[in-house]
Amino acid sequence: MRDALPAHRLPTATGLMSSSVGIGGALCLPGAAFLAQHADWHLLFVVTALLGAVSGLLVMTVVPRTPADADGRFDCAGALVLSVALVCLLLAVINGSAYGWTGAATVGLLLGAAVLLAGVGVLEMCGQAPSSTCAPVRAGW
User: Fold this and answer.
1) Which of 50, 70, 90 is the last residue of a domain?
2) Is residue 2 part of a domain?
3) Residue 29 belongs to what domain range?
């Protein structure tokens, strides 16, 4: 936002962006409950996908590019490894009671998530286009 807005509008814009999470939750949870009760629950995923696609198109067409965007690259490897790590972690937590918390599947998923999350850290510190800064880690906090 610093690249797109003048300094005097930054506090208001930051507040608006932060409040959008709460406003979205307050509006979407009752809407989702209504859809689930009066329509098929699969429709929730369709509506979410459509809203995501519309939001992405709006961002690409309405939000102006800034000079900071010109040389930025997407960290595809980091995003992929982080996604797989989070899926492993969520599967272990969600299915832990069914698999057994000390079962091979749960322990394997948790270990896999830990190894992959460590890999994300290595990719972020050593990668060409990290998606997050690792300066505090490199400086020893």
Assistant:
1) 70
2) no
3) 7-70
Please tell me the total number of residues recorded for the chain in this structure.
Answer: 141
Tell me what percent of the residues of the chain surpass a pLDDT of 90.
Answer: 37
- According to DSSP H, which parts of 39-134 are helical? 42-62, 67-70, 76-99, 104-126
**68/76 Cα distance (integer angstroms):** 19
CA distances (Å), origin 10, targets 17, 67, 70, 97, 107 = 10, 18, 22, 46, 46
What Rg, from alpha-carbon coordinates, does the chain have?
A: 20
Tokens of 52: 């995501």
Q: Within this chain, do residues 54 and 16 fall inside the same structural domain, yes or no?
A: yes
pLDDT of residue 100: 92
| pLDDT(70) > 80 | no
What local confidence, expressed as pLDDT, does residue 21 receive? Answer: 84
Distances (CA, A) of 57 to 47, 52, 54, 60: 15, 9, 5, 5
Task: Dig out the tokens for 56 from the structure.
Answer: 């992405």
Count up the domains in the chain and report the number.
2
- Say which residue the tokens 């939750």 belong to: 25
Residues 90 and 54 occupy one common structural domain: no
